[in-house]
Structures are given as structure tokens and as C-alpha cells.
């Protein structure tokens, strides 16, 4: 996920104000689809828009609006990348802004390395699913020579991503458009690398999401998903504990997030397809400095003025940031990486 003070002040995770988490019972693999908000979500979205007397928004519209509003502020404070940084577990707390930006880049390199990809992306085709303002794509094109196509629900992000790519040598290597990850505008088997960096947490239908990731991957292509998950359930458990559900529910409420699933759920979904070498890891320990840094950045003069300019939704999101830290510390929230290769 990373949505906005969330994603505004919170990198990727927060970006969302999502539909209130449906009451989780069994593992959450399939939540409501776009346009299928739960009653409570509909009520919430309607209430949120009280000053704009339009029809109730779908989750898809809510996510798009959230990013339309918050991406500029996020870019101003945090730069190109709307995802967690990958830190040395022994990192000191006094990291500089450039240290945090370097950590966000390190997250990309670590994800590639985990998936067994080294320097061999020259002219390989990459789809950046949930691309934000295109930070990953520009990096993959510039450093590794990849040819990238990004999709996002936010028209503002797509426009900004294309503007940032309008430079000699880059414009012909990356492009961005508004499209739904659950119904991607690409033919089957198109991409050597399918990249989803902290967008999966926004997907209301995890099975359809995984299905699309596998569908657009070329035979032998690699799929990399870095996403927010809840902890795996023990064999004796049928669901999270009530206090855990409550914590996630408060986060979802602030960020337009649908129901979460576990890393094990992703592995199960991927293994139901023709893929091999499914690997997973819990990177929570490597991202620990991130949320405290986002909170600190929100408490600077620049952060506070941006926050005030951004409006109540962003402020509400900011207030929930400590819950992300609590969720990680208590082991309910995991920053997971799951990778695999589509069969040749
Ligand atoms: N991967 C980027 C941005 C992460 S923020 C980065 O690391 O910087 C989450 C992104 O997911 C946003 O761009 C949002 O528009 C996108 N997103 C969420 N749901 C989506 C969907 N159903 N289809 C396409 N993009 C989606």
C-alpha cells in the first residue's frame, strides 16, 4: 500500500481511504469489487462527501480522488516514490531526508534482487501496476534500461508521471495511463516483469488482482508484489483477533483501503496459477524507520502547512499514522514481498 497524509505524509501505505474493512472472517482474499462497496463503505463515502452533493463514490473513484489530491504534496515532501524505504535494521533514528530517499530506492533494488533479477532488464518490458507518479518506472528505465508502462487510477498521477518522463532518452522508454489493475488494458503475456510496489493493498479483489498480474506476464516473466499484509493466521485460527481487526479497521477507515489479506493468501493465490519459484519474505523489520520519519516530516513547518492546505481527509489520515507503527510493532501488519515466475 504504501495513501496520504496518508500517502501524503505517509508513503505508499497510506494512500488510501478505503472502504471500511468488511468484517473479516475467513482470510480476506476476495473483498468487494469496485462499485460493490459494502453498505458501511457507501455510507462513509457519502458522509465524507457531504460538502459535494454528488452520488456516492465507488472505491475506485475514492482512491483516484485521494491520490489526485495528495500526490503533489507527497512529491514536494518525499519525492518520486510513494513506498516504504528499505533500511539497515541497525539504522540510527537520525536519518536525513536524503537517507530516506535512498532507502526508497534501495527498496526497488532489494525487490529486484530478491526476485533474482540483476542487471538484465535492458529493453525488457515492464508493467508498473499502481505506478504513482512513476518513480519506479523511471528508475527501472534509467538504471536498468527497462521499457515501462505504468497504470494508476489517478489522472493527476498519470499526467505528472508523463510530464516527469518528458526528457530525451526517457520519453520513449516510459509511459503512463489511467487504468484499473483489475482490468488491465494489455494483451496476455506482454511483460517480462510485472511490478506492483505497494498498490496491492488497494485491491478489493485479491484473486482478480493476482489473475491479472499472471495474465499480462510473458511466459518466463517475473512477478514482484511488495504490499501491506496482515499476519498469517495460525492453523488453529479462522480469523484475526478482534483487537487486530479493530486496529486494521481504523486504518482502512482513514485510508480508503479494502480488506487486507495475509502473505500466505497471496502465495496460495499465485500457486493456483501456472507459476513457479514462488517466494515470500517479511520485510517489516527493514521498514521500521519509515513511519516515524513520515510523522516527523509531517510535524515540520513545511509538513504542517502542507497538511493544513491539504484538508480534513489528509489530516485524518495523519492522525492514524501511529496506528501503522503500532500494527507493525504488534506484528499484525507486515510489509511483504512475494515473487514468482510464470511458467515458460
Ligand atoms: N507504486 C508507486 C505508488 C504507490 S501508491 C510507488 O511506489 O511510488 C498506490 C498506487 O496504486 C497509486 O498510484 C494508485 O492509483 C494505485 N492504485 C490503487 N488501486 C489501483 C487499481 N485498482 N488500479 C490501478 N492502480 C491502482
From TrEMBL:
Check the record and name the InterPro entries matching this protein.
Answer: Methyltransf_11, PiNMT-like, SAM-dependent_MTases_sf
Q: Does the keyword Membrane apply?
A: no
- A Gene Ontology biological process annotation? methylation
Instruction: Cite the residue spans of the region called SAM motif I.
Output: 126-135
Q: Which UniProt keywords apply?
A: Methyltransferase, S-adenosyl-L-methionine, Transferase
Q: Where is this region: SAM motif III?
A: 216-225
Q: SUPFAM superfamilies of this UniProt entry?
A: S-adenosyl-L-methionine-dependent methyltransferases
User: What is the designated name of this protein?
Assistant: Methyltransferase type 11 domain-containing protein
- What organism does the record attribute this protein to? Rubroshorea leprosula
Instruction: Give the taxonomic lineage as stored in the record.
Output: Eukaryota, Viridiplantae, Streptophyta, Embryophyta, Tracheophyta
Amino acid at each position: 500500500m504504501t495513501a496520504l497524509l496518508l500517502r501524503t505524509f505517509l508513503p505508499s501505505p497510506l494512500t488510501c481511504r478505503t472502504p471500511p474493512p468488511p468484517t473479516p472472517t475467513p482470510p480476506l482474499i476476495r473483498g468487494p469489487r469496485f462499485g460493490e462497496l459494502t453498505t458501511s463503505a457507501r455510507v462513509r463515502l457519502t458522509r465524507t462527501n457531504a460538502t459535494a452533493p454528488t452520488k456516492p463514490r465507488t472505491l475506485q473513484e475514492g482512491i483516484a480522488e485521494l491520490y489526485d489530491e495528495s500526490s503533489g504534496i507527497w512529491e514536494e515532501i518525499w519525492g518520486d516514490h510513494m513506498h516504504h524505504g528499505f533500511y539497515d535494521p541497525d539504522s540510527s533514528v537520525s536519518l536525513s531526508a536524503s537517507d530516506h530517499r535512498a532507502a526508497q530506492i534501495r527498496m526497488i533494488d532489494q525487490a529486484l534482487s530478491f526476485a533474482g533479477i540483476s542487471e538484465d532488464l535492458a529493453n525488457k518490458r515492464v508493467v508498473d501496476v499502481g505506478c504513482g507518479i512513476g518513480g519506479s518506472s523511471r528508475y527501472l528505465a534509467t538504471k536498468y534500461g527497462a521499457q515501462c508502462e505504468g497504470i494508476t487510477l489517478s489522472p493527476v498521477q498519470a499526467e505528472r508521471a508523463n510530464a516527469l518522463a518528458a526528457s530525451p532518452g526517457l520519453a520513449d522508454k516510459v509511459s503512463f495511463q489511467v487504468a484499473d489493475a483489475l482490468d488491465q488494458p494489455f494483451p496476455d503475456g506482454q511483460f517480462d516483469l510485472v511490478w506492483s510496489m505497494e498498490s496491492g493493498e488497494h485491491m478489493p479483489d485479491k484473486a482478480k488482482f493476482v489473475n491479472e498480474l499472471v495474465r499480462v506476464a510473458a511466459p518466463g516473466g517475473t512477478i514482484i508484489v511488495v504490499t501491506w499484509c496482515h499476519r498469517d493466521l495460525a492453523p488453529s485460527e479462522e480469523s484475526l483477533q478482534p483487537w487486530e481487526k479493530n486496529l486494521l479497521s481504523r486504518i482502512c477507515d482513514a485510508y480508503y483501503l479494502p480488506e487486507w489479506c495475509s502473505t500466505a493468501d497471496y502465495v496460495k493465490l499465485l500457486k493456483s496459477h501456472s507459476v513457479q519459484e514462488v517466494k515470500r519474505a517479511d520485510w517489516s523489520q527493514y521498514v521500521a524507520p519509515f513511519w516515524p520519519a513520515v510523522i516527523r516530516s509531517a510535524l515540520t513547518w513545511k509538513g504542517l502547512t502542507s497538511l493544513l492546505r491539504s484538508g480534513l481527509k489528509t489530516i485524518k489520515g495523519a492522525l492514524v499514522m501511529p496506528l501503522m507503527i503500532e500494527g507493525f510493532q504488534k506484528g499484525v501488519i507486515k510489509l511483504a514481498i512475494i515473487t514468482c515466475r510464470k511458467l515458460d
